Amino acid sequence: MATVVVPFRAGGKSRLPDALRVDLALAMLGDVLEAAVIHDVDVRLVTDDAAAAAAARGLGVGVIADPGGGQGAAVETALLGAEGTCLVVNADLPCVTAAALARLEELAPAHVPAPDGTTNALALPDRTWFRLAYGAGSAARFAAAGLGLATILELQHDVDTLDDLEQLERRSLPLGRRTTLVLNQHKVAAARTA
What is the pLDDT of residues 85-99, one digit of tens each? Predict the structure, then answer.
């Protein structure tokens, strides 16, 4: 059994339009958490956001208070007490599926880079493999720490901008149902359901 950790920061997604930002961030988080719950039982959200915490509890996900200090400190806190394989999955991956998480777990130790050189997901043989390496260029730092490259399409594409949504549409990647619903409500393209 793996532990799945999902970090989520209040006020994120600042490069999305204000009218869409909060709804889309919470929808993508819900899709990620649902896939994680289907994949495994020990799912942990680490956050400072009350709405995210409420959504997680509704799915039976454990909630850990974000200690502050950035994504690395949040993940490190959420990994405390975890046993066995640990997956760390960002909250802005609207194409994630339980099957993609299962593939990631099989590849541990591994990382999934984002197109900009940051990191979307980690598969750690155990929590001691985690390093505080997030930020610009983090994918290269995780690779240097011994985490192999995992090529899993559903985990490779995060959403920070409207252009990221357009890229998903051009690639015909299916989105989670919550993300699709929000995009339809806001009349935004890329609302193709998984």
Answer: 999 999 999 999 999
